[in-house]
Amino acid sequence: MIKELPQDTVVYFTDATHPTHNTQKSKAWIKKGQEKHIAANSGRKRVNLNGAVNALDPCEAVVVEAQTVNAQSTITLYEKLLENNPGKKLVLICDNARYYRSQLLQQWLEGQPLIQQWFLPTYSPNLNIIERLWRFMKKQAIGLSFHPTYQAFKSSILHFFEHLDQYEYELKRLLTLKFQILDSPLSNST
Fold it and tell me: What is the pLDDT along the chain (190 residues), one digit of tens a residue?
């Protein structure tokens, strides 16, 4: 369906993420009988990101860092998408977060004839490919690395998005539009 849209239409999957400044759990090999100490932070400070990834070009992602992810930061993201795609129609696929349905955003969208929001079914992050980008970012930018300061943590994340082209091969394999439809016992009940 996305590939059948007119050529002047660009489709983005949108969402927010909030990585917390701390060491992330992961897997590693360690020799039996030895201990491995992992440095950690005691902080809870987050990097709030509101983002969009192009459905057909996974190396094109637009990310806005915000104090809070809300209607205002979503408008900022949408304005950036319009700026990056002059004269093109935008279809923005999003989940059902409050800020996507907020009155402020809906009023703003009334004056934006080039933007359409398409909403995913409730509780279906598996259908939003930007969720896969967030997970990949956390693996690459945060992973097993210890970031002693919040600024180093934030810089690592922002550096990842500034250099997405370095991950082109992995992103093209990971962020595809081929979704596995799982058979639900609820849908088969008689």
Answer: 777 888 899 999 999 999 988 766 666 678 888 887 777 776 678 999 999 999 999 999 999 999 999 999 999 999 999 999 999 999 999 999 999 999 999 999 999 999 999 999 988 888 999 999 999 999 998 876 788 889 999 999 999 999 999 999 999 999 988 766 555 454 443 3
Domains of the chain: 2-21+41-174 (3.30.420.10)
User: In Å, what is the CA distance from 64 to each residue of 168, 175, 181, 187?
Assistant: 21, 20, 31, 38
CB 56 within 8 A of CB 9: no
